[in-house]
């Protein structure tokens, strides 16, 4: 496996100084969506069934986290009200 010598974050996350949680949750949601989409594309490239299952599970977990951030932002769950 080749080493990744690039600097910065792989997902392009910015170090935001705002105290508004919506600014941070929006950035995290974008990163989660991008990573989930990437993992799902990778599933199509992999032949090993166990690895495919792992990648699909990873995408599902990332989607669940994205939904949790949505629920936090919209206060749509009792825990966030």
Task: Summarize this entry quickly.
It contains two helices and no strands. It has 81 residues and is an all-alpha fold. Helix 1 (21-43) packs antiparallel against helix 2 (49-74).
Notes on the structure:
This protein has 81 residues and is an all-alpha fold. It has a domain of 55 residues. It is built from 2 helices and no strands. Helix 1 runs antiparallel to helix 2. It is flat. It starts with 20 loop residues before the first helix and ends in a 7-residue tail after the last helix. The N terminus is likely disordered.
What overall form do the CA principal axes indicate? flat
The biggest beta sheet, please?
A: none
Q: Structural class given helices, strands, pairing?
A: mainly alpha
Please report the distance between the alpha carbons of the first and last residues: 46 Å
Number of DSSP-assigned strands: 0
Provide mean pLDDT, rounded.
Answer: 84
> Which band does the percent of strand residues land in?
under 5%
Q: Oligomeric state of the chains?
A: single chain
SSE string? HH
In which range does the helix fraction lie? 55-70%
In angstroms, what is the radius of gyration? Answer: 16 Å
Task: Flag low-confidence runs.
Answer: 1-8
Total helices: the number is 2
